[in-house]
Amino acid sequence: MGIAPKGLRAYFKRDTLQFAVLWKLSLVLKHNFLAQLGEYLPYRFETIQEKALKKELAEKNDYIQKLEIQLETLREIIQK
User: Is the predicted pLDDT of residue 2 greater than 70, yes or no?
Assistant: First the structure.
C-alpha cells in the first residue's frame, strides 16, 4: 500500500476515511470493509451474487416440489 505503519495507525484513529484508502485497505487486508459498512445501513442491499443464489434456490425448491409430487404418484401406483 506504500504507507508506513505509523501512517496506517493514523488512518484508523480518524473519524473518516477516503474511499480510495478504504478500498486499498480492503485489498491489502483481504477483508471487504465496504460490505461490512453496508451491513450497518438501515435497509438491506442484495449483491448480484446473492440475487443469483436466491434465484437458484427458488428453482431448486420448485424442482424438489415437482419430484415430491412424482414420488407420491409412483407410491400410489405401486400400492395398487
Answer: no
**Which segments of 2-78 are extended strands (E)?**
none
pTM greater than 0.70? no
Torsion angle defined by CA atoms of residues 35, 48, 44 and 33, in that order, rounded to the nearest 10 degrees: 0
Residue 68 in this model has a pLDDT that exceeds 80: yes
> Helix (H, G, I), strand (E, B), or coil: what is residue 18?
coil
Half-sphere exposure of 1 (CA within 13 A, CB side): 17
Torsion of CA 13, 4, 38, 32, to 10 degrees: -140
Scan for cell 437458484, then name that residue.
56
Give tens-digit pLDDT for 18-29. Answer: 888 888 889 989
Q: How many CB atoms lie within 10 A of CB 50?
A: 11
Q: Using an 8 Å Cβ cutoff, are 45 and 38 in contact?
A: yes
